[in-house]
Write a structure and sequence with these properties.
Helix 2 runs antiparallel to helix 7, helix 4 packs antiparallel against helix 5 and helix 5 packs antiparallel against helix 6. The protein has 7 helices and no strands. The chain is rod-shaped, with a radius of gyration of 42 Å. With 244 residues, it is an all-alpha fold. The chain has 2 domains: 64 residues; 163 residues, no CATH class.
Length: 244
């Protein structure tokens, strides 16, 4: 309101100067139009400039929000991957180690044939054998062979359990892994399982050649991929360590 009065006051002063110098009606009308037109244009320009500034500020704010959301999402994804990678590696390392232990041609077993009844009872008490399995060993004429047959299935169960944990974890969290690394996990899982199957079927068929195929697959196919995954995970963790 004050600004409007100031504009009117300025105009009246300007009009007074014109009349004082003898300006005619046509001159007064022209100057009046020129003065008011200039003022109107300046006011409109100022209003439009304010609108553009306000609109630009809104656009910049919207852009900041979008960029912040993108950065926040990328950071959260990196944090999740940073947590998933060590856990996935731990499960792979456990499964790989147990499969290699199962299919290795060098197996160690307790010499139960040399144990007396008391020693055998003490030894069996420390195993995971069921009571019926313990009795089976005690009453066997070939205790060593019976013991080795039973313990193989216990070892196989432990291996399959670790393998299942690996598969479930990668299936659940593979979305947070780079596609090429997820694919390597899939391949190494297939090769580990193939080695387990060769050992299991070979054991049931008493086919040593087939059992040795499991060990061959571990050494020639699985271990190179296992080492490649380890290298990739180390690189990813170092990368995230620098970013976080």
């Amino acid at each position: 309101m004050l600004e409007a009065f100031m504009i009117i006051d300025d105009f009246l002063k300007f009009l007074g100067h014109v009349l004082a110098y003898g300006g005619g009606s046509a001159v007064v009308a022209y100057l009046l139009f020129q003065y008011l037109g200039k003022t109107w244009i300046e006011n409109k320009f100022a209003q439009r400039l304010d609108q553009l500034r306000h609109q630009q500020a809104l656009e910049l704010q919207k852009l900041r929000v979008e960029i912040d959301a993108l950065l926040s999402g990328a950071l959260k994804l990196q944090e999740k991957e940073f947590l998933v990678l060590p856990e996935a590696w731990g499960k792979l390392d456990e499964a790989h180690g147990l499969v290699a232990w199962l299919v290795s041609p060098m197996q160690q077993y307790a010499d139960v044939d040399r144990m007396n009844p008391v020693q055998l009872d003490e030894f069996l008490a420390g195993t995971e054998f069921t009571e019926s399995q313990k009795d089976e060993v005690r009453n066997s004429h070939d205790k060593g062979n019976t013991y080795r047959g039973i313990i193989f299935w216990h070892r196989l169960h432990k291996v399959k359990q670790a393998f299942g944990n690996l598969q479930c974890y990668v299936a659940k969290n593979g979305i947070f892994l780079p596609p090429e690394l997820e694919e390597k996990f899939s391949k190494v899982s297939d090769k580990l399982w193939s080695a387990v199957v060769s050992k299991e079927v070979g054991h049931e068929a008493k086919d040593w050649k087939m059992q040795n195929e499991g060990w061959k697959k571990i050494k020639e196919e699985t271990e190179p991929l296992y080492k490649s995954i380890k290298k990739d995970i180390q690189a990813r963790l170092q990368f995230h360590g620098r970013k976080l």
